[in-house]
Amino acid sequence: MDYTVLVVEDEENQRRTLVQKVDWASAGFRVVGEAENGVEALDLVETLEPDLIITDIKMPMISGLELAAGVRKMRPATQVVILSGYDSFEYARTAINYNIIRYLLKPISSAELTEELGEIRRRMDERLGSLQNGGEDLKAELRRLQISEFLLPLMLDSAPKQKDEQSLFKKAAELSVIDSDEDSRYCVLVTKFQNENGEYKADSDRAAFCTRVISRYMHCVSVVVYGRIATLVSVQGEALDNALELPLRELVQTAKRVFHENATVGVSREFSALLQCSAAYLQAVTARRYTSDGAGQVRFINDQEHGEDEALDTVEQSVLKLEQLLKVGKREALSEYVSTLYDSTAPDNANLLVVQMIAAVCRVVGTVSDKTELHRLIESNPLVARINTYSNENEMRRELTQFCEQAKDIIAQSQRRDSEVLCDRVIAMINEQYGNEELSLTNVSSALAVSPNYLSTLIKKTTGKNFVTLLTDRRMRAAYDMLICSPMKILEITEKCGYTDQHYFSYCFKKFYGESPAKVRELHRS
């Protein structure tokens, strides 16, 4: 399969020469777009999703290196070739950080670039090949089995109960499952790969792929768990959603090229004790299922479930204590606890507490005795006698179905409302802070306590525009008002609208309104 290419060059003649005279096909490339500056190129990257960008380093508004940095945030799977007249080590050193696969000195002829494409193709093939499982030697296979043997019981909550956190940490560090840094925080990722036929794939190759992509950014290990790839990630310092944004973007983007499959990822809350792996795994499984709504292929559980309400949390903790007393507590302690608990519960939470307690009691009895005893308990107690008053099974089934459907409607309405409120808050922040040159999707998502990836997808789904477009629209409307309603100089307006480069501001303004700022002001005055 050919790699797709976007050509970026501000000189039209040179751009035409690159597009038309270089023999792209012979090296396995196909030009899908061209741009005259970095701003236009960033717009095209989002729509064309090229595998490779070839760009001049010196361009108006934003340089080739700035373009590479922007592309790195949007599409970390995209590689960049820089054409430059500067033979500078500093430029080359900076290039390493921005997925710049080749740094070529100008002038360069079409024939020379055609020849270079062979080496660029080789490097891109090599990079993709390194992400695939090229076969394991015996030592690597043994280590993989040891990691699986250690991690699977943790993920599935089947680890020996006598295991304590200190011994788990020591064993995990020995196996290099985690960093040996005791200040590390962890999270679990759950990834599923689906091919064009709708079939899900989960094997050691895909587990190795997940590890190789994410380990470029942070320490991790991956195992296969019931048709899913579960990855334990160790993070330090940076907020979890920010730290994972680039690796998860790259994972999703590269999976399409390597396996020709759609990857969806769920991310748990962060935690600090390995004994919490099982709860985190279930959170990640739940988070991944939220991707079925089409609002992005990566979902953090915190994006969907912003922690339990304090009252609900208290009820659940109370029920856990009840379960312990049922199993191993004394009868007097049990009666006293239930009485005290009910007296201390707010009236609006009383019904919830009763439901939770009935469920807990039935669950505990069901695990330690046979079904006959459980049925006898239900039938003999007036608290749950309502279950036995149904005239027939169909009536009970109908009411239970109705109850579940009503709950589903409440959840769906809440999710829609939360999405709309979130987008409203984004627009409000843009309206208030459009003059701040530092305003970005990342700091807005941090302020709203959601991941940048999720917020970006949600904005696009709700408004039909991305964050940058919404911000630019607001800045342009403000600039227009200042131009026709104030005597401010264009440079002042540039700065008040969050731009540092007047040329860049004028370009954006003309692209938006079809006329330059000076021309709009002149036409209004005339």
Q: What report would you give on this structure?
A:
The protein has 526 residues and is α/β, with parallel strands linked by helices. The chain folds into four domains: 3-131, 3-Layer(aba) Sandwich (Rossmann fold), CATH 3.40.50.2300; 146-304, Reverse transcriptase/Diguanylate cyclase domain (Alpha-Beta Plaits), CATH 3.30.70.270; 310-389; 391-526, Homeodomain-like (Arc Repressor Mutant, subunit A). Helices cover 59% and strands 13% of the residues. The protein is built from 22 helices and eleven strands. Strands 6, 7, 8, 9, 10 and 11 form a six-stranded mixed sheet that branches. A five-stranded parallel sheet has the order 2-1-3-4-5, with helices on both faces. Helix 2 (38-48) packs parallel to helix 3 (64-74) and helix 12 (310-328) packs parallel to helix 14.
